[in-house]
Specification:
With 381 residues, the chain is an alpha+beta fold. It has helices spanning 3-18, 27-38, 99-115, 136-142, 203-216, 259-279, 299-311, 363-379, and strands spanning 44-49, 53-59, 66-72, 122-128, 153-161, 168-170, 173-176, 178-187, 191-192, 218-219, 227-236, 243-244, 247-256, 283-292, 295-297, 316-318, 337-346.
Length: 381
């Protein structure tokens, strides 16, 4: 990559970093991306896809497959801790997952394609909203405008702290775990703290469920039976000494390698919750948020990315197990051959979603060049 392009992309990354918008609110980010893409000479730019999604289309004019490159628009509702001159200007919000860097890479692809159209077929650059809630990819694909894209191949990446800076890991088959947030609301009856016998407290059920749900999924090997349940929040009544509580909430994240195992884990968890609640005279309501289906990589798409890394002389290692974290990128695999690769952010780099995380700018040319080479390899035959 030419130094002037790398410098420009780094500048754009820093500008995006300063104005993070959380899932579903990416209007300003989408407008900035649309303006930048227009300057990169696409044949068309689609906006408002599945919310604030954007797609730039580069058409060779010759028959061939449609190759899409996907990145994410959204930031996180987390206060950033940073002394960088480009730190977030929005209190309580930050690009603490690296989506600003992912966008910069795809903008780099747009710049190159604007000067050199694909040899055949089409390339579509997707800027997807609401990845962090698991709702964005599904909404993007459900939008009527998606029929104008209809990709045959979709490639994506995620930066990965803990992996050597600039190195790549890939796996075929299961790539990211399925997960969902389970919200359990227990309702009894409040009473005066001096007369708890006149109420129905959910305290006992809450105390019982905290360890019981944890035993349903204790992690272990990332195989077909893998299941992990993580308690993330618990609440019991109001912060007062005068009231015996009548309400409680428990939030648990369920995680599995496969969607089939997730269905089983949901049934096991719901049965355990219902039994505890009814045994203590409580009513119960269970709802779900942040629902992510399992993400799978296509063997053919993995081979293309592996070859792209070889051509670009990027260290690439095939690994046998998926990542524990979730991704809604798997939605694009419903109708296309897809693969996500993990690009190392450094062995000692702060973890994703940490307040002190920042995307390493050194990754911008590496990711951009892998994407460009994957496009070339896919469209050359």
């Amino acid at each position: 990559m030419k130094p002037e392009l790398q410098s420009w992309l780094t500048e754009k990354r820093h500008e995006l970093h300063q104005v993070p918008e959380v899932s579903g609110e990416e209007r300003g980010t989408a407008a900035s991306i649309s303006n930048l893409l227009q300057a990169c000479g696409p044949d068309s730019v689609l906006t408002g896809i599945g919310g604030h999604g954007v797609a730039a289309i580069y058409d060779s004019g010759s028959p061939g497959p449609t190759v899409a490159i996907r990145c994410e628009l959204d930031g996180l509702p987390i206060q950033e801790i940073s002394s960088a001159r480009y730190a977030s200007q929005y209190p309580g919000k930050g690009h603490l997952c690296g989506h600003d860097g992912h966008m910069a890479m795809v903008l780099g692809v747009a710049f190159v394609l604007g000067n050199q159209r694909p040899a055949r077929g089409r390339v579509v650059l997707i800027f997807q909203p609401a990845e962090e809630t698991g709702q964005g990819a599904m909404a993007f694909r459900a939008d009527p405008k998606f029929t104008q894209i209809a990709p045959d191949y979709v490639f994506s990446l995620h930066n990965l702290p803990g992996l050597e800076l600039g190195a790549v890991e890939l796996c075929s088959g299961p790539a990211n775990c399925a997960s969902r947030g389970m919200r359990i609301a227990l309702t009894g009856k409040t009473s005066h703290a001096a007369a708890p016998q006149d109420g129905v407290s959910p305290a006992g059920a809450l105390a019982e469920l905290l360890p019981a749900l944890a035993t349903l999924g204790q992690g272990g090997a990332l195989d077909a039976d893998y299941a992990l349940t993580t308690v993330t929040h618990a609440w019991l009544g109001e912060a007062t000494f005068g009231v015996a509580p009548g309400l409680a909430e428990l939030w648990v994240t369920l995680r599995t390698v496969s969607d089939t195992r997730m269905t089983e884990l949901i049934q096991e968890a719901e049965q355990r919750v219902t039994a505890s609640a009814h045994a203590q005279g409580l009513s119960v309501e269970i709802t779900y948020d942040d629902v992510f289906e399992a993400c799978r990589n296509s063997d053919e798409a993995v081979q293309i990315l592996t070859e792209a890394c070889r051509i670009r002389d990027v260290p690439c290692r095939l690994v046998p197990t998926p990542q524990r974290f979730s991704e809604d990128f798997g939605q694009f695999g419903k109708g296309a051959k897809t693969a996500m690769f993990w690009l190392g952010a450094g062995r000692d780099h702060p973890q994703l979603h940490n307040p002190d995380y920042d995307f390493p700018d050194a990754l911008i040319p590496i990711g951009t060049e892998i994407f460009l080479t994957a496009i070339e390899e896919t469209l050359k035959t």
